[in-house]
Amino acid sequence: MKKTYDLNVLERTSIITPDQLREEFPMTEKATQTVLDGRQDIKNILDGKDSRLLIITGPCSIISRRQALEYGQRLAGLQEKVKKNIRLVMRVYFEKPRTNVGFKGLISDPHIDRKSFDIDEGLRKARKILMDLNEMGVAAGTEILSQTAAERLSGLITWACIGARTTESQNHREWASAFSMPVGFKNGTDGNLDTAINALLAASSSQVFVGNDPFGVTSRVISRGNRYCHIVLRGGKRPNYDPVSIGEACDMLSRHPSLQKSVIVDCSHKNSGKDYHKQGEVFNHLLIQRVGHTNGVHIKPNRAICGMMLESNIEAGSQPFVYGETRKEDLNPFVSITDACIGWDETEALILAAHQQL
């Protein structure tokens, strides 16, 4: 009989199961407390019980443990200076959605060579990085692209994001309904808010879906629903960080009493026109809206703006990178190979200035 399946599959190999990875890198008491405290702080911010501003900042993509720990150490020191007014979370992105083809992140290709795709090693590196950061007291936020990564790493994640390309995905909405951490859904790439609102309604409800148990066995999962799902504005055909756009988002959210009315705004992507130099400008515009004054000019403060996100690395910009041709050993680990980022000096200056304003 002729074969009717796997006609385009070249190879199948098993990967490390969730319980095996957790046994190899078990949670410590300090890391556990960092995650729990971070999640509760974000929930309180979303609920309006904590008046601090949430700032999620870090590299567009993690390309090495050295990079992640260097940024984490700097962020830990900055957190101590601003913790009265600002809650910092590090952006720790291991998975990258691609429009067509390209580097899909450290989990998929930890050697960044476009040939080995050692996913087991990628998962080990990712979990070790998250363990190290949480041991420092640095809370981690990441985008969830695959169920595989979510099942193996979610215990170390304080805040999760569903990206613009996947907000409409039923699978991602179902997973979010079961996640233990707050989850931000970005508006669609065209700027459409309806997609994100529908995602919030789905993810905040109980769902039944196909998932895996800790041993990697396919299972039926029944979720409670996640009431800490919220919207992340990232721009679309035009930026949407202005007061009118944020007001429109708040109006749409207010039509659904069960949804969080708090908004996080991404200062990068379409809100900055994909120009990393403009992230600081967007950040400062949002800060003015949040506090309601600048240089003696007063406007009505908008407390619906509960957080902002920055794409930030140790060094600014991006470096020349041709996937499959540029060798990992030739890369500067502190400069982005995906979206260009602001550097640490500008990041620190923006956050310290925000702390003073707040």
From TrEMBL:
GO cellular component: cytoplasm
InterPro entries: Aldolase_TIM, DAHP1/KDSA, DAHP_synth_1
E.C. numbers: 2.5.1.54
Main enzyme class: transferase
UniProt catalytic activity: D-erythrose 4-phosphate + phosphoenolpyruvate + H2O = 7-phospho-2-dehydro-3-deoxy-D-arabino-heptonate + phosphate
GO biological process, one term: chorismate biosynthetic process
The organism's place on the tree of life at top rank: Bacteria
Pathway(s) the chain acts in: Metabolic intermediate biosynthesis; chorismate biosynthesis; chorismate from D-erythrose 4-phosphate and phosphoenolpyruvate: step 1/7
Keywords: Amino-acid biosynthesis, Aromatic amino acid biosynthesis, Transferase
Gene3D superfamilies: Aldolase class I (3.20.20.70)
GO molecular function, one term: 3-deoxy-7-phosphoheptulonate synthase activity
Residue ranges of every copy of the DAHP synthetase I/KDSA domain listed in the record: 40-349
One Pfam family of this chain: DAHP_synth_1
Family statement: Belongs to the class-I DAHP synthase family.
PANTHER family, A to Z: PHOSPHO-2-DEHYDRO-3-DEOXYHEPTONATE ALDOLASE DAHP SYNTHETASE, PHOSPHO-2-DEHYDRO-3-DEOXYHEPTONATE ALDOLASE, TYROSINE-INHIBITED
General function of this protein: Stereospecific condensation of phosphoenolpyruvate (PEP) and D-erythrose-4-phosphate (E4P) giving rise to 3-deoxy-D-arabino-heptulosonate-7-phosphate (DAHP).
Protein name listed in UniProt: Phospho-2-dehydro-3-deoxyheptonate aldolase
Organism of origin: Desulfosarcina alkanivorans
